UniProtKB/TrEMBL annotation:
This is Na+/H+ antiporter subunit C. Belongs to the CPA3 antiporters (TC 2.A.63) subunit C family. It comes from the Bacteria. Keywords: Cell membrane, Membrane, Transmembrane, Transmembrane helix. Coiled coil: none annotated. It is found in: Cell membrane. The chain crosses the membrane at residues 6-21, 28-50, 70-91. Its main location: membrane.
Length: 116
């Protein structure tokens, strides 16, 4: 189970960093979202991964830690709100600038027809 979680976190971090390094705005937003998912999975796994364990009930020593679950739930809500805000900001930047490049400048490629 830990290997599966670690692989998922590694894959999400890799994809997130790859998308953050893109030159357009929307892949950067998706990359930040994937990184937040990776952090959420990491926080969730810090609460000792356990299957079929009850929440804190009674005096049993076998229970799931509720703190990482509460942190992840809060992070999901905040991440969703921030993603919605950044998407609206990216749409506004696209409307104002006419392109969706991160630095606001269109990449001009040299083609052979334009050269004399």
């Amino acid at each position: 189970m830990e290997l599966l979680y670690a692989s998922c976190v590694g894959l999400l971090v890799t994809c997130g960093v790859f998308l953050i390094l893109r030159a357009r705005t929307f892949p950067v937003v998706l990359g930040l979202t994937m990184l937040s998912y990776a952090v959420n999975l990491f926080l969730f796994s810090s609460g000792r991964l356990a299957l079929n364990k009850a929440a804190v009930l009674g005096y049993s020593s076998e229970y799931a830690d509720p703190l990482p679950q509460a942190l992840v739930l809060t992070a999901i809500v905040i991440g969703f709100a921030m993603t919605a805000f950044v998407v609206i900001l990216a749409i506004r930047g696209r409307a104002d600038l006419g392109n969706d490049h991160v630095n606001g400048q269109e990449i001009v490629k040299n083609n052979k027809k334009g050269k004399a």
